[in-house]
Design goal:
With 344 residues, this protein is α+β, with helices and mostly antiparallel strands. It has helices at 26-32, 71-87, 168-171, 200-205, 211-226, 230-239, 244-253, 271-284, 295-306, and strands spanning 22-23, 41-45, 48-54, 60-66, 95-102, 105-111, 123-124, 133-135, 141-143, 150-151, 157-166, 177-187, 207-208. It folds into two domains: 22-151, Phosphorylase Kinase, domain 1, CATH 3.30.200; 156-344, Transferase(Phosphotransferase), domain 1 (Orthogonal Bundle), CATH 1.10.510. Helix 6 crosses helix 7.
């Protein structure tokens, strides 16, 4: 897919956002968390702890407190504030209620939100993973962990061809071949997030498109339906000297797809739906970003297939086959290996 930067729309702000993030004092947050009591610790993140708290107005919040202040934690803090100030009223985004920044403290205050118009905003999360998908009290998914996020805009977006090495098993030849993909991207110094959720084109080149988050979403879907860590699934495939895609494909051909479905379901699921969902997850995590759907397409396909919405709203008529490709979903080529010295 090719975008023209002259017509590609970027939005700098959100309409109808009545409650921008507030600047809290450290005194307010100490009071809210009972002076950051260890009894109020509810989680941890890469560089700090998360406390439950109650603000003076009675609302429950989580307070994310960095354990130290350095360049990395400051950059993550600024990214969270920038993205949170832009989309914090989206119903599936953990709302940024406010922040506190003093010489030796970096704190973010997050809580529930209500729906709002979001405009046309392109956000590269860059760290979609199970640890950053939370459930609210109604068991609705909420996205957090925006410390690595980038908002795509005219000043950081480039348009061009992304080129990265293709494994010999992908090309069917021992000679060096390359994948090529043309899109709008943000050129970063290196890949961010966890390797196993990082799209190959981004991992090899540092050029991040919106398709990177789709790739991570596909991997996460496989974890969700299998009840198994994606690295363990990969290990099971490697044990049989197969890529994850080929291994799942072989199981499907043998009518053994149940081996990758969460055993806690005890077989209580519709096999046809499970097949479709596995195929959909592999479509999202395809090695070729041109085959992956846009996230808007993901929503439309899920609604049409599982909520029985009008399938004509989806731009893909089948999840089991790619456009212009007769290869079934369970025979996708394996993902490329990481460069030497990079651990998953």
């Amino acid at each position: 897919m090719v975008f023209n930067l002259r017509t590609f729309s970027f939005a700098e702000s959100v309409e109808d956002d009545p409650t921008p993030p507030k600047s809290f004092s450290i005194k307010e947050l100490r009071r809210a968390t009972d002076n950051f009591s260890s009894n109020n610790i509810v989680g941890y993140f890469l560089s700090g702890k998360v406390y439950k708290g109650r603000l003076a107005d009675g609302s429950l919040v989580s307070v994310h407190r960095a354990s130290y202040v350095d360049l990395s934690s400051e950059e993550g803090f600024e990214a969270e504030v920038q993205v949170g100030s832009t989309v914090s009223t989206h119903p599936n985004v953990l709302r940024l209620r406010g922040f506190c920044r003093i010489e030796e403290e970096l704190l973010l205050v997050k809580g529930a939100c209500t729906p709002s118009h979001q405009g046309n905003i392109k956000i590269l999360h860059r760290h979609i993973s199970p640890s950053n998908i939370l459930l609210n009290v109604h068991f609705e998914a909420v996205i957090g962990g925006f410390s690595l996020a980038e908002i795509m805009h005219e000043n950081n977006a480039e348009e061009g061809t992304i080129v990265w090495p293709m494994r010999s098993s992908d090309s069917g030849s021992d000679s060096r071949s390359y994948h090529r993909y043309e899109d709008v991207y943000v050129n970063t110094t290196s890949f961010c997030g966890t390797f196993i959720y990082c799209a190959p084109e981004y991992f090899f080149t540092g050029k991040c498109t919106v398709k990177n988050d789709v790739y991570a979403y596909g991997k996460m879907l496989l974890e969700l339906m299998s009840g198994t860590d994606i690295s363990k699934l990969n290990s099971l495939a490697v044990d049989e000297d197969l890529s994850l895609e080929k291994w799942i494909g072989d199981l499907k051909n043998k009518n053994e797809l149940g081996r990758v479905i969460d055993p806690n379901l005890q077989g209580n699921y519709v096999e046809e739906e499970a097949e479709r969902l596995v195929g959909f997850a592999l479509l999202c995590s395809h090695v070729d970003p041109s085959i992956r759907p846009e996230m808007s397409e993901v929503v439309r396909m899920l609604e049409s297939q599982f909520l029985q919405r009008d399938p004509s709203t989806s731009t893909r008529s089948s999840w089991s086959q790619s456009e212009g490709d007769s290869t079934p979903y369970y025979s996708f080529p394996p993902s490329p290996s990481p460069p030497l010295g990079i651990a998953p």
